[in-house]
């Protein structure tokens, strides 16, 4: 989310010293959801991970981007988290022998948190998503696609993607 707490994670923060260029932040504008996240994953996360060649993928798995969560003003759904977990699992398989660890972070709506974490585990286990039993597409609104596109272009330029 753009302007996220605690004030770090700005798009131009790229690391320091020998780690310069190894930090990649892409704060998404409020209202970003499934479409934005799929695009970010395909156009930024995958090529960045392929260039970095990780030995293990560590994921700080925050669920406060869920549309029902009061904190982030994003529109991720339980289905978004299932897709992310599934895609990260595949990325780890492709790049680092499947080595991947998820650490549970934020999420302040207990219903969306519990459904999303459970669906993430389903993705890890190769089971089908149950997101359709929880997600309500009627509460979603149009994503800010032009702002997302601007953020993507800026991060791609900064990181030569």
Strand runs, count: 2
Helix content: 40-55%
> Which descriptor suits the 3D outline?
globular
Sheet/helix structural class: mainly alpha
Number of helices: 4
- Side-by-side strand order of the widest sheet: 1-2
Low-confidence stretches at least 5 residues in length (pLDDT < 50)? none
Q: Could you spell the SSE succession in H and E letters?
A: HEHEHH
Describe the structure.
This protein is globular. It has 4 helices and 2 strands; from the N terminus they run H-E-H-E-H-H. The relative contact order is 0.20. Strand 1 (57-61), helix 2 (78-96) and strand 2 (100-104) form a beta-alpha-beta unit. It has helices at residues 34-52, 78-96, 110-125, 145-158, and strands at residues 57-61, 100-104. A two-stranded parallel sheet has the order 1-2. 42% of the residues lie in helices and 6% in strands. The two termini are 21 Å apart. By secondary structure, the chain is mainly alpha-helical. Helix 1 packs parallel to helix 2 (78-96) and helix 1 runs parallel beside helix 4.
